[in-house]
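(Protein data)
===
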Amino acid sequence: MRSVEDQLAAVVDAAVAPEPIRVALTDALGLMCAEEVTSTTQVPGFPQAAVDGFAVRAVDVGGSAGLRRPERRDAAKEGAEGEAVTEGADSEAPADPPVARERALPVVGEVPAGSQKPLRLQPRQAVRVATGAPLPTLADAVLPLEWTDRGRKRVTPQRPVRTGDFVRKPGDDIQPGDIAVRQGSVLGPAQIGLAAAAGRDKLLVYPRPRVTVMSYGLELVDLDRTPGLGQVFDIASYVVAAAAREAGADVHRAGIVNAEPRRMRETVAGHIAKSEFVVVTGAVGGSGAAPMQEILRELGEVDTTRVAMHPGSVQGFGLLGDERTPTFLLPSNPVSALVIAETFIRPAIRRSLGKTAVARRTVKARSLRELDSIPGRRGFIRARLMRDADSGEYLVEPLSALEAGPTHLLAGFAEANAMVHLPEDAIHVRPGDIVDVEFLHQRS
């Protein structure tokens, strides 16, 4: 019997990334970048207003008597975030200071964001600017709207600014020649934004791996038919297809394979040639699966050694076809199929996507119930994971057969948000014992 670690190592080692393709930037989220993206321009390309306010020369407002500047830390923070200064910041200024009329600056124009009309500022003048607007020539600072009397024709500063305050300087974010996105990085929102800033509307990426899920079994019928005596719906292939898609794959559910040997072989061979992974549910677990296993062995190497785990001990894995496509053989039982998909298929998909963390997060939690496991096998027990509001400690409630139904039924998994992992030598868990718990997909 093979260990879980050995089976996982074989599966993950066989996972390869698909050949790179060029996709639209809007379709690249979550994929691994296959090229180095270098900026050819500076971002921003011109001096921009970081807040709504007035473009000024700092010398015209920085030395006025009776004006006290807030701490530099606040100005720098607010300007970096590009947000309007809150009213609470006014507490830095003297309450209702006397305003001398000679401090007022004439407002000689207004520049909205996106303006292409050049303006030139003269000494002792102000121009109203919106966030993102280009600064007029000679302006070296922006006086935030909240730091003035909000005058329309003449504006009176109530605080001073220094050169560079609330201004986004050219090249602050990216300089020409800077690497905006590195090859091999996974494209998140920030990377997408940097690629856009570099002017790229398409990127070379490793696409989502193509996963084909098919099912085999004389007892199976699809959902558009009514099961007769001895027949059941094909559930496992839907379960595995959903799990693979949630892991990030491009999934094709091929449905139930025709049992005639020649057509069975043609179907499997065709999908192997155009997939990064193939999953066949119902291909293990009894004499009924023998015809499918025979066909698969004609196409390549297949290993159906049992894995030391429960549920899902009966499974298989192989490399089929000239492409040596990783192929998973799963039982038709949906719970066993889902546990195998979470434990082996998900990490393989994540590795082919270039993810560094291929497994879900696990934590230590205190069990709230007694729990028994099978000696010599790693247990994967559906559970509810909670957290104590006072101590922050994780608590886990294994779902019993009484509450969640027998272990072969899927309904219990619908109530679970985690799986307890019990090592091979953990035969009995008492209430209060610490166990390893894996997060499952969180439902909002």
Observations:
- Confidence is low (pLDDT under 50) at residues 63-68, 71-101, 401-406.
